[in-house]
Amino acid sequence: MKLTVWTYEGPPHVGAMRVATGMKGLHYVLHAPQGDTYADLLFTMIERRDHRPPVTYTTFQARDLGADTANLFKTAAQDAYNRFKPEAIIVGASCTAELIQDDPGGMAETMGLPVPVIALELPSYQRKENFGADETFYQIVKALAKPMERTKQITANLIGPTALGFRHRDDIQEVTALLSDMGISVNVVAPMTSSPSDIARMGAGHFNVLMYPETGESAARWMEKELDQPYTKVVPIGVGATRDFVAEVAALTGVTPYLDDSRLRLPWYSKSVDSTYLTGKRVFLFGDGTHVLSAARVARDEMGFEVVGMGCFNREMARPVRTLAKEMGLSATITDDYLEVERTIEALQPELILGTQMERHIGKRLGIPCAVISAPVHVQDFPARYSPQMGIEGANVLFDTWVHPLVMGLEEHLLHMFRDDFEFHDAAGPSHHGGHAPAASGSGGPAPRPADSPRSLPGQVNAGSVIWLDDAERELKKIPFFVRGKARRNTETFASERGVAQISVDTLYEAKAHYAR
Amino acid sequence: MTELPRLPSTGGCRDTPILKQRGQREVFCGLTGIIWLHRKMQDAFFLVIGSRTCAHLLQSAAGVMIFAEPRFGTAILEETDLAGLADAQDELDKVVTELLARRPDIKQLFLVGSCPSEVIKLDLAKAAERMTQAHAPRVRVLNFSGSGIETTFTQGEDACLASMVPVLPTDDQRQLLLVGALPDVVEEQAIGLLEAMGIGPIKVLPAPRATDDLGVGSGTVYALTQPFLGDTHDALTRRGARHLPAPFPFGEEGTTQWLAAIASEFGVAPELFEQVTAAPRARARKAISQAADGLRGKSVFFFPDSQLEIPLARFLTRECGMEAVEVSAPFIHKGIVGPDLDMLAEGPVISEGQDVDLQLDRARDARPDLTVCGLGLANPLEAEGLATKWAIELVFTPVHFYEQAGDLAGLFSRPIRRHGLLKLEAAE
């Protein structure tokens, strides 16, 4: 038994739903009690889908338990077939139905439905959502895909995108364009956009592009072995990774590597002088393994940030994340415990968090800016505009998204220069965050409260043990607010390491000199 | 007292045959109620003993994670708990001890049963009893079930309140008890009106804090503010309290009838009743007539969801001029919604429970001007050109009593108004 407040992943049957909902012509008959239908709203509300997920829930109740839940399942499966006429059906149990052991797979097999019926075994009390999606897709591919003659032209299957995926919709378009520029067309995109009959012709592709290892790796491995299709290992998120991806595809297929980078802006934006202020910004990364691995490389090599901590919530990706963290001189945080992530962030006090919606909330509480790089998703993660993470446009999107929560370079200098001016009250946040701008009244009025300084946060080891003298406190206030927290923390650490109990103006500047870089 | 409600001349819906179909039910489970109950009971923690699905539901229903460390959580059952390797009761003790150590502000702890805990027959009543002894007097531990195999959406609140009734101290003094978790502002309005009529003492269940001196006994009369409190109703009756049946306080008419039932019990003079209610009634009528402009003559179809459907259909048809096509509720308790059914004119299909696919067929055939349904159905129906009002907002928004009557009508008129406002096609 484990106390959980917020979860990064849903149960495995939600992963199966992500596969089914992304596909066409497939229906999922799920043995589950009535409350489990809440999962529909993930798709209809968060992703704004205009159709109900293709899922029939048996919705058994307590009174059915003593009677005949098995029959209820059969009726539901038959009704679902009659009504929706799918090309194939997947059947399984949610956590509660797993306990009553009705064996939906076995029952569905005996029903003689005229379409393939694929049984799913998703252990609800051991595994989670990503496993559920990966396993479901694997079972579907294993049941339907067959070796066959390759297409005459070189084609690829794009595998891994699902419903409710983080920017999967736009990544498909971007990767399709990358391949098209090299003269490679797409055979099948799966699970999202495909039907069972599309899955059946996946064998015609020359190779697979594994876009999201979280949801497609088992299928990729099976197809490598059974259909003799190699798959790509590089996930093209960021400039370097996109170039590597092009090289990898060229090596797999023998075509000439080609990348149209005429629309690529990240490298120049990163070199331009306004970006100097990004240098060495301390960032903390957290999310699913794939996005964190990619983001770490972009953060360090393409943005010039200092990665001070990283981790992932999906244990399946622990190994590569640990390896990369070690290379960066860090130890990875592998956990699905939201409170542990929060404690880690509190202790590290980064200047920017690249995380999930959960970390966005942590950042809000701690006054640390955050950009979202990974699922679990929120309605904001389905923007109306084209906003991929992968490829050329993906790199541009990363630059914008990550820089947006920070104070811009020139603006930072102006704020510093005019810090005593009432309109440039140091509580004024970035000008592009409208809500922060104080009203310019004659008296100045009560300024909006800036983010809490780290000192007032719990978990600060030094807080309270060192005293700030009045002069030093006044001097500290002259430092722009967006670096004041760091200055306070550094000074306190500096003081306590030297056994200094009182911080004077001198201590403040000694600490500044000590930490100068 | 005040004028009696004008009952439909063709007869109400109390005896209309109820359509009952058995199929997929597209509804939340009772755990959802924790989202609003934990805001109402400020020193309570709700610990669900369940699966990852339960935790995921709470998180999804809460929409966004507004509260860094909320006063609810899930003790997720793991393989070892199920295989009997770890005694689930010992494990639960461990979780609760840690939780209470970290949260000294907690005075009431609810152990909330879920589908998996019910199926493995984890005895939470026994656990609650044991923990109450272990943590008395600081924390009182109670249990109820919010499982989807036993409860539908708002029934979770009913189960929670019902679990509190047996442990209330006995108090036989004459008092009025208002039952149902309402937003504070709404609750204060109701109490204000009743006190102005000289009615008192007035208590509320749930009280905001465990220490509030709430007792119950033979002198207690109670009014329900929500139509889903059947078990709580029974539990209070068992404690000797007496129910004051009335239409529910939605809209001007519902609020007036609800207040009148209480006023009559307490012998309030008609002049005083009139004096207290005249101004807010007039305001409510005015507000409703403004908001209801777009609703008159429009048809409405209710999918079963929050259990508020019957009283709301009564409000929309009688005060906003809508025409009900179908009114369905997860379950129909005539002892509670009888007065509302009496006032709802015959005509609509009254249905209980659901086969969602068949019901969607009926809705598509009827093409109502407004469909009231859960979040899983709303966008798909909008995509088919049907205007919808998603029902969960009716539970989260202040909609009771006079001052909110206009807002309540507004919740329904906004989707229809929006349909008229949007011009997304070319001008030609």
Descriptive key words:
heterodimer, A: 517 residues, alpha/beta, five-stranded parallel β-sheet, four-stranded parallel β-sheet, 15 strands, 44% helix, 12% strand, B: 428 residues, six-stranded parallel β-sheet, 17 helices, 14 strands, 43% helix, 16% strand, globular
Describe this structure in words.
The complex is a heterodimer of chains A (517) and B (428). By secondary structure, chain A is α/β, with parallel strands linked by helices. Chain A has 21 helices and 15 strands. Chain A has helices spanning 12-22, 39-46, 62-66, 69-84, 95-100, 104-110, 129-144, 168-181, 196-200, 213-226, 239-253, 266-271, 289-302, 318-327, 338-348, 357-366, 391-403, 409-417, 470-478, 481-497, 505-515; strands spanning 2-4, 26-31, 55-57, 88-93, 117-119, 155-159, 185-190, 207-210, 282-287, 306-312, 333-334, 352-355, 370-372, 467-468, 502-503. In chain A, the strands form 4 sheets. Chain A has a 5-stranded parallel beta sheet, with helices on both faces. In chain A, α14 (318-327) links the parallel β10 and β11. In chain A, α7 packs parallel to α10 (213-226) and α19 packs across α21 (505-515). The longest helix of chain A is centred in the C-terminal third of the chain and has 17 residues, at 481-497. The radius of gyration of chain A is 26 Å and the shape is globular. The two termini of chain A are 47 Å apart. Chain B has 428 residues and is α/β, with parallel strands linked by helices. In chain B, 43% of the residues lie in helices and 16% in strands. In chain B, strands 1-12-11-10-13-14 form a 6-stranded parallel beta sheet, sandwiched between helices. A 4-stranded parallel beta sheet of chain B has the order 3-2-4-5, with helices on both faces. Chain B has a 4-stranded parallel beta sheet with strand order 7-6-8-9, sandwiched between helices. In chain B, α11 (270-291) runs parallel beside α17 and α12 (309-319) packs parallel to α13. The longest helix of chain B has 22 residues, at 270-291. Chain B is globular and about 65 Å long. Classes of the chains: A alpha/beta (517), B alpha/beta (428). At the A-B interface, β1, α2, α3, α4 and α5 of A face α2, β3, α3, α4 and α5 of B.
